[in-house]
Write a structure and sequence with these properties.
2 copies of one chain form a homodimer. With about 150 residues, chain A is mainly alpha-helical. Chain A has one domain: Arc Repressor Mutant, subunit A. Helix content of chain A is about 60%, strand content about 5%. The first copy, chain A, has 7 helices and 2 strands. The first copy, chain A, has a two-stranded antiparallel sheet. In chain A, helix 1 crosses helix 2 and helix 1 crosses helix 4. At the A-B interface, helix 1, helix 4, helix 6 and helix 7 of A face helix 1, helix 4, helix 6 and helix 7 of B. The structure holds a DNA duplex (30 and 30 nucleotides).
DNA sequence: ACTAATCCTATTATTTTTATAGGAAATAGT
DNA sequence: ACTATTTCCTATAAAAATAATAGGATTAGT
């Protein structure tokens, strides 16, 4: 039960994009990759997925780059993770009843289903703007700590 | 973010063991495997893990089989899943700070940490006896439905 | 001794993850 | 038109994790 690099890198990249693209100007993937310490080539794939999911908008050519498709407070963590990691169904039989014969009687399916819902609700509680704000507060906290 | 077959089969097997071994008599792995529709050879591995984790007790030889190491209401889902799937840390840096350089400043780590805790708490809320009871209720419900 | 159960180690096939590589397509500036 | 710089698309591949299978060793009741 781990988040893959796609989800981890992708989320960090989206926060980066929300922070650095706030003014409405497109952000180069190369810059995000550099700041986040991730291979640009790998990030391309991730942004391809995010693009198809309608979460980012790309401008090609020189002076191109990426923009958020919606406002940071309208993009929930759930959407991002769902796009990159697939739906939060912890077992296949929750989203696809044909995945198991015992669907009707199996109690564990119910438990996994509830937990999946809980995870979704949790992720729905955070938007990109939430995270950007938290990130800012954390950085400031660190600075204060450093000066003491 | 999926539960692997080890976790899925293992949990179902533990519920099975709790239900059929309630009287204190050991249960054959072959019987559990048959009831759960899982390869006996594969279940052996899973029970090896559960054994080392101190969740089940094995009796070898003829008339052998498996017993729960503790009472069904003392075994939480969290213990079972932790034994079979590893700790509920969704990213490595939560349990191992050396896994990433950005640990101090990264806000996503905090989010994953909180979510991991939530999942743990959820799983801690269910014990084997809870699930056996729920299973029983569900079966009864189905029977009633069937008779209508 | 025989039988039936768990235990242990090795092997293997498949799938998923984690990338890398190379070029195509688009666009801004010259 | 040309060039530089960006995203886009497809293919490939190495590594790791998953999902088993196989064969025999060990244990214990009859």
């Amino acid at each position: 039960m781990k988040i893959s690099t796609k989800g981890r890198y992708g989320l960090r990249a989206m926060i980066d994009l929300a922070a650095y693209g706030a003014a409405g100007n497109p952000v180069f993937l190369s810059d995000i990759a550099k700041r986040q310490g991730v291979s640009e080539k790998y990030l391309e794939h991730i942004f391809g997925t995010l693009n198809k999911a309608g979460l980012v908008k790309a401008l090609r050519g020189r002076k191109g780059g990426y923009l958020l498709q919606k406002q940071p407070d309208e993009i929930s963590l759930k959407e991002i993770i769902a796009a990159l990691e697939g739906p939060c169904s912890l077992v296949d039989c929750v989203s696809d009843v044909k995945a198991c014969q015992k669907v009707e009687t199996c109690i564990t399916r119910d438990v996994w289903k509830i937990l999946g819902k809980k995870i979704e609700e949790f992720l729905n509680g955070y938007t990109l703007s939430t995270l950007v704000r938290m990130q800012g507060e954390k950085a400031r906290q660190d600075t204060i700590m450093y000066h003491i």
